[in-house]
Amino acid sequence: xxxxxxxxxxxxxxxxxxxxxxxxxxxxxxxxxxxxxxxxxxxxxxxxxxxxxxxxxxxxxxxxxxxxxxxxxxxxxxxxxxxxxxxxxxxxxxxxxxxxxxxxxxxxxxxxxxxxxxxxxxxxxxxxxxxxxxxxxxxxxxxxxxxxxxxxxxxxxxxxxxxxxxxxxxxxxxxxxxxxxxxxxxxxxxxxxxxxxxxxxxxxxxxxxxxxxxxxxxxxxxxxxxxxxxxxxxxxxxxx
Length: 240
Ligand SMILES: [Zn+2]
Ligand SMILES: [Zn+2]
Known about the structure:
The protein is of the alpha/beta class and 240 residues long. It contains nine helices and six strands, in the order αααβααβααβαββαβ.
C-alpha cells in the first residue's frame, strides 16, 4: 500500500494543482474538498435509499415483510447472517471500482473509501475483518491484491481488528458470470480454507464487489465449519 499511497498522493497533489477540486463524476469544480461533489453524492446509487432484506441485502417490498427477511432467505437461509453494501454496482461506482482493479487508478480506491467509510465504521466495530481471499495466481496476474489494499487503507483511517491471512482461496475458480445458481455453487464449492484458528465469534468478510452471493456464501460455510458463530459480509458495492 505504501507504493499506492505514494502514487496516489503524488497524482492527487499534481492533479489538484492543475484541476483544483474537480468532481471525479461530473467534472465540475467542487467547492468542498471531496473527490465527488455534493450534487453527485446525492445521486450515487446508495443501497440505504431502498428497503432491503436484513440477511441478503437485496431489495424487498417494504410492505410485504414484517421480519424484513426476503422469501428466498426464509426458504433457504444463507450461511452468512447479514450482507451489507454501501452501493449498488451501478454507474459511476462500477467504473470507479473497475478503474481501481484493472487500470491502476489508485485515486479511485481513496474515493471509494471516502464514500463508504461511515457505513463501514458502524459494522467494523463488532468483529474481526477478513478479506475475501483471492487465489495467488490472480494476485500475481493483477500485480496487487485489491481487497488487501482497501482494508489496509481503511484501517489507517478507522481502527478495527483485521487479519489478512486467516483465510485463503485454494481453488482458482472460474468467473461466476454467465453461470446459473447451481453451477455457481458447484464452481466455488471447497474453494476456501481457514488457515489458522479464528478466536472471534463474529467475522466480517470484506469484499469490494459482491456480484453473486454464492462465493461469500461458500466462504461463510467454511468459516462457520471452523467454529465462527456469526458471519457478516461487507462490500463497497453489490449487484441487485
Ligand atoms: Zn459532481
Ligand atoms: Zn434475503
